Amino acid sequence: MKGLALESEPAEVGMDPARLARIDRHFRRYVDDGRLPGWQLVLTRAGKVVHLSAYGMRDLEAGAPIEPDTLYRIYSMTKPITSVAAMICYEEGLFELTDPVSRFIDSFAGVRVFKGGSAVAPYTVPVSEPVRIWHLLTHTAGLTYWFHFAHPVDAMYRAAGFEPGNGPDRDLATCCDSWAGLPLLFEPGTAWNYSVATDVLGRLIEVASGMALDRFFAERIFEPLEMGDTKFFVEGPDVERLAALYSPDGVTGRARLNSELGQGVLRRPPYLSGGGGLVSSAHDYQRFAEMLRCRGELGGVRLLGPRTVDYMTANHLPGGVDLARFGTAVDAAAPDFGLGFGLGFGVNVDPVAAKVLAGKGEYYWGGMASTTFFVDPGEELTAVFLTQLLPSGTYPLRSQLRQLVYQALVD
After folding, report:
1. For residues 117-134, average pLDDT
2. For residue range 17-44, what is the model confidence (pLDDT) as tens digits?
3. What sign results for the dihedral spanned by CA atoms 383, 384, 385, 391?
4. Which helix (DSSP H) or strand (DSSP E) does residue 216 occupy?
């Protein structure tokens, strides 16, 4: 794989090669029966790449296989990158986590909360607590997504022109003003709801730093970490490397080309989505995950202080509760028992309650096209799994990846 090579025999880092082979056998079945077009996996332990595998096609129609340098839409795996960018700004004193968002985005000074009524005739009241920066980082701001279909405010987002994909033809500043003009689901800080909060955080980074989000990402994260494949859109020769996007056929369940959404990354998007806009590669995201595992530093380049990473990857839900007790009915991190949330990451606070073989303190996130990654500091382990099947959650790929990776640890 581009920039990636096996660096250790599995036994040297406490992993069983025969058990590692179970991972590939399992996920190959998804390709062989047509449920996935193809996939790519990178496992690292103790700082050494110990397992690299890929199977299937990046483009079924063209007969093009997964290659070491294949590019993928990572969608919400953009969120941890935006959160790191925000904490770079925090470490430089550009804001405090308790600062109201309205200090940087004026329209958030007048937000209101939905209290009843309908999407066409909502009853709202002024907030009693301002939306603060830590609310954005923890998805406790009361914002939402248009694709939840669970609350009247979700419908109000759709009526305002926001739909899955790259969104309407508005820049990021205008989108944030639009979201601020729609009601919050709840008082900030009183519940967890997966939302456009990280997109708002991206705009806040722009205002606080004085740099466009793509430039900030490039200069402060991608160039230092040698993540040259990670960007907001694909052009020129790189288009050939981009995996096609698929969704399951409603009758057969086989992966079917989703050209409507898949073409969105072939042009500069209307707004730079810190919540879901990036394209990346196995090489790049593995480096990002390893930087996190190494507590902010990789290859002599430090992006964050170690205590900042520790702070980000702790559970920030009030009282240390999990998402089952603090989240709404539409949390995208399901199953949510035993799972908390930090500053941009899901956090496993109780593997027994979560009913998944994993390490306590492991942190993770995934993307809308079924991509995922996790970092387990205690086990010195990182995993990056990339594919292109939308929506996520169609199959239990993430929980199965964990159980198969952890069963291969034998030390």
Report:
1. 97
2. 999 999 999 999 999 999 999 999 999 9
3. positive
4. helix 213-217
Q: Judge contact between 351 and 358, C-beta under 8 A.
A: yes
* Confidence class for position 333, pLDDT limits 50, 70, 90: very low
Structure-token match 């956090």, residue found: 347
Alpha helix segments (H runs only) across 294-375:
306-312, 323-326, 351-354
In a 3-state reduction of DSSP, which class is residue 18?
Answer: helix
Those residues with Cβ within 8 angstroms of residue 68's Cβ, 6 or more apart along the chain or in another chain: 1, 2, 4, 54, 282, 283
Amino acid, res. 254: R
Q: How far apart are CA 212 and CA 89, in angstroms?
A: 13
How big is the chain by its Cα radius of gyration, in Å? 20
Pairing state between β 122-126 and 255-257: unpaired
Give the residue carrying structure tokens 């830590």: 134
User: What gap in Å lies between CA 366 and CA 195, rounded to an integer?
Assistant: 14
Residue 320: partners with Cβ closer than 8 Å, 6 or more residues away: 340, 349
The CA distance from 87 to 35, in Å, is 38
Q: What gap in Å lies between CA 408 and CA 50, rounded to an integer?
A: 11
